[in-house]
Write a structure and sequence with these properties.
The protein has 397 residues and is α/β, with parallel strands linked by helices. The chain has two domains: 141 residues, 3-Layer(aba) Sandwich (Rossmann fold), CATH 3.40.50.1100; 222 residues, Rossmann fold, CATH 3.40.50.1100. The protein contains 16 helices and 14 strands. A six-stranded mixed sheet has the order 3-4-14-9-10-13, sandwiched between helices. Strands 7-6-5-8 form a four-stranded parallel sheet, with helices on both faces. A two-stranded antiparallel sheet has the order 1-2.
Length: 397
């Protein structure tokens, strides 16, 4: 019997832990000792749930996608995280972490961002709580996600383009950690996914678990059963996936299928399929699967989606894949784009390219007529319109 909860040292099986510079030890230790006390405190719960309801707009709908269901011969429900304030699931986590930071007496917030959704969500809650906000974002992502950069600046955040390495998410995270090392006293680092040193993977999963909590209730209203046959989500660092599956991990009848980014193909050398390609290593404070060369150098991932091109994976997801609790499929750029255009035409919903990877699973699996499938639509496609327009022009050639 596998356990899917984190142990006291921050491990899920062999993955996890806290591998951090000495200067951050006190900060991370303080967080580790306090996060559960704070998260479970009735006053925190009340503030958190009030904001989720009145500010974020939760619960997000569970929408029965009639035409998509007809096409794939099963019952497909979309968990509409794209309808949250700021356009993705990221805000569930940043609201929780900023309340936590306040309770710990921190006055300055830093964050890393890839697609910019976590950056926007962090800048949003900093504006809401009147806190100083510094965002690190790879220069490549700054260029391909211009709209989100403008939003962060409008919200009052300082956005620092990172020019080291591949100039994407990994490099932005490196810079955020450097900043934290230089400002350990007043600064709180809001990590946007189920990655990083313990307790971050567990804390982010708990804050995102509002998704699976709602799925259970909503499914019961619609299908008179709390448990779907399949849960499908995209996975980069893994926070929307962790939130989608959290309250179903110990339900063996629920099949968990996660979609990672195959980029131009698993073996093309331009991929972000970490679970397929990764080997055990340490990145950003945790032991997990990591894309690395023969001599252990981190390899640069590639995906058309800025939110999925991370060379590691959250330790929970590494554990779920290793113990065969989850099935991980690699979805290529073209497959994700096909799925995005299909959803747009069939249901009138333009998804984020990240979420389109989850939709790409539908063509890869065979479902039965009576089976209930829940797909987490983690974000909306506004931020990806430039990419979509380019692809559409090319395809219509």
């Amino acid at each position: 019997m596998h356990t899917y909860n984190v142990d006291q040292n921050g491990y899920y099986g062999e993955f996890g832990g806290a591998y951090i510079p000495e200067i951050l030890y006190e900060n991370v230790d303080l967080l580790k000792k306090n996060y559960l006390k704070i998260l479970e405190d009735p006053e925190f719960q009340k503030d958190y749930h009030n904001l989720l309801r009145d500010y974020v707009g939760r619960p997000s709908p569970l929408y029965f996608a009639k035409k998509l269901s007809h096409k794939y011969g099963c019952k497909i429900y979309l968990k509409r995280e794209d309808l949250n304030h700021t356009g993705a699931h990221k805000i569930n986590n940043t609201i929780g972490q900023i309340l936590l930071a306040q309770k710990m007496g921190k006055t300055r917030i830093i964050a890393e961002t890839g697609a910019g959704q976590h950056g926007v969500a962090t800048a949003t809650v900093c504006a809401l709580m009147n806190m100083k906000c510094v965002i690190y974002m790879g220069k490549v992502d700054v260029e391909r996600q211009r709209l989100n950069v403008e939003k962060m600046q409008m919200l009052g955040a300082e956005v620092n383009p990172v020019t080291s390495g591949n100039m994407t998410l990994k490099d932005a995270t490196n810079e955020a950690i450097r900043d934290w090392c230089s400002n350990p006293i007043d600064t709180y680092y809001i990590i946007g996914s189920t990655v990083g040193p313990h307790p971050y993977p567990d804390m982010v999963a708990r804050l995102q678990s509002v998704i699976s909590e709602e799925i259970r209730k909503q499914l019961f209203e619609k299908e008179h059963r709390e448990i779907p046959d399949y849960l499908i989500a995209c996975v980069g660092g893994g926070s929307n996936a962790a939130g989608t599956i959290y309250h179903f991990l110990n339900e063996p009848s629920v099949n968990i299928v996660l979609a990672e980014a195959a980029g131009k193909g698993i073996n093309s050398g331009e991929s972000a399929a970490t679970i397929h390609l990764g080997k055990l290593g340490i990145i950003h404070g945790s032991k997990t699967l990591l894309m690395q060369s023969e001599d252990g150098q981190i390899e640069e991932p590639y995906s058309i989606s800025a939110g999925l091109d991370y060379p590691g994976i959250g330790p929970l997801h590494a554990h779920l894949a290793k113990t065969k609790r989850s099935e991980v499929l690699a979805i290529a750029d073209e497959e994700a784009l096909d799925a995005a255009f299909e959803l747009t035409r069939l249901e009138g919903i333009i998804p984020a390219i990240e979420s389109a990877h989850a939709l790409g699973v539908l063509k890869k699996k065979k479902f039965k007529k009576e089976e209930v499938i829940v797909i987490c639509l983690s974000g909306r496609g506004d931020k990806d319109m430039e990419t979509y327009i380019k692809i559409q022009k090319k395809r219509n050639g």
